[in-house]
Specification:
- This protein has 6 helices and 20 strands.
- The chain is of the alpha+beta class.
- The protein folds into 4 domains: 37 residues, no CATH class; 109 residues, Ubiquitin-like (UB roll); 87 residues, Roll (Ubiquitin-like (UB roll)); 45 residues, no CATH class.
- The strands form 6 sheets. Strands 6-7-8-5-11-9-10 form a 7-stranded mixed β-sheet. Strands 13-12-16-14-15 form a 5-stranded mixed β-sheet, covered by helices on one side.
- Strand 1 and strand 2 form a beta hairpin.
- Pfam families: USP47_C (PF19718).
- This is Ubiquitin carboxyl-terminal hydrolase 47 C-terminal domain-containing protein.
- It comes from Amphimedon queenslandica.
Length: 337
């Protein structure tokens, strides 16, 4: 018998002597442990190999060196050929599919796999390819960290330094650039639906990926399409929606169509509008207005005014236009927070 001791305290014994007793197998010196797991191989060719080069060795090592990866996959371009609990042996290790989102067929899916840390990125891509329907050269693998995506490029590098639980995402596209092409950085952004006249005025909508330098109008188109695909219950029209910063629960800066998305912001509000966007310039100020009726002890639904400046006379004029109340009956006071 040959013992292999691991740093985790696990002891593996290669038992080839057919005359050995169970007592000898279960004892190690004066120590006895009932917690024994037996691996049996019926492959005569594998049996002839030296233990450390055998398939048996890889199966025994798997629980010791494996980690869990959460991977988001794009919609498959052909019928997936791998299923949950499938075990696949590579040159250096093993990959097992632990769970797979079977409900979102034809859509982006999430899977959890258990892989040997010694597997290389190239081998991992080979195993993922049947789930995506394209060859390994047709997609790239990114690691998500601090809400940003970082491409894993070293095909010969192992994932030894990763701990269990890292989130990876697969994106279609060639890993090798052609002459004149360049990579762009992608950001993961959380979107919230801003419904100013609803009791649930701040509602999580979805996550989206936006490329660095994306124009606001193009991102709006992307949001509309993704909301349809995900079946989100809201009506969005390209010229009747607004994108703005979300700071805490407060709506902040309004982004105009000609501007570029600030991808460093992790959260945004998507605000449906009653009509076309009234803001035309960055210097303008958007203000929510609630009309109070003291005699009825009631308030009207929230409306808004767009200010060209913060002069009190200008504010009063805009309030008069909105409400129909003459300017001489409106007073404006600025409150410093």
């Amino acid at each position: 018998m040959k013992d292999n001791d691991y740093e985790s305290g696990i002891i593996v014994r290669d038992v080839r002597d057919v005359g050995i007793t169970f007592e000898e197998m279960l004892y190690r010196g004066d120590m006895f442990s009932p917690n024994r797991l037996f691996y049996v191989s019926s492959d005569p060719k594998d049996y002839q190999k030296e233990y450390k080069y055998s398939l048996m060795y890889r199966y025994v090592d798997f629980p010791v060196y494996s980690i869990l990866l959460d991977i988001t996959l794009p919609p498959p371009l052909s019928e997936a050929t791998l299923t949950t609990n499938d075990v696949h042996v590579t040159e250096e290790g093993i990959m097992k599919i632990v769970s797979m989102d079977e409900e979102n067929k034809g859509k982006e899916r999430k899977i959890q796999v258990q892989v040997d840390k010694r597997i290389t990125l190239a081998e991992l891509k080979e195993e993922l390819a049947p789930l995506i329907g394209v060859p390994p050269t047709g997609f790239r693998v990114y690691r998500i960290r601090n809400n940003e995506e970082y491409e894993l490029k070293g095909l010969d590098e192992t994932i030894m330094n990763m701990k269990s639980g890292p989130e990876l995402i697969v994106r279609l596209g060639r890993a090798v650039l052609q002459e004149g092409e360049k990579r762009i950085k992608l950001y993961r952004i959380k979107l919230y639906l801003l419904q100013v006249n609803s009791t649930e005025f701040c509602k999580f909508m979805m996550e989206s990926i936006v490329a660095e330098g994306t124009p606001v109008r193009e991102f709006k188109k992307q949001i509309i399409e993704e909301a349809k695909v995900q079946g989100i219950d809201c009506v969005l029209e390209l010229d009747k929606m607004r994108l703005r910063d979300k700071r805490g629960v407060c709506p902040d800066t309004v982004y105009l169509d000609h501007q570029v998305i600030d991808a460093s912001m992790e959260t945004y509000y998507v605000e449906p509008l009653k009509g076309p966007e009234k803001m035309k310039y960055q210097r303008q100020i958007q203000v929510y207005v609630i009309r109070w009726h003291p005699s009825q002890c009631s308030v009207d639904p929230i409306e808004e005014i767009i200010l060209d400046n913060n002069d009190p006379k200008h504010v009063i004029q805009k309030l008069s236009e909105l409400s129909g109340v003459p300017t001489e009956y409106i007073y404006c006071t600025k409150v410093n927070h």
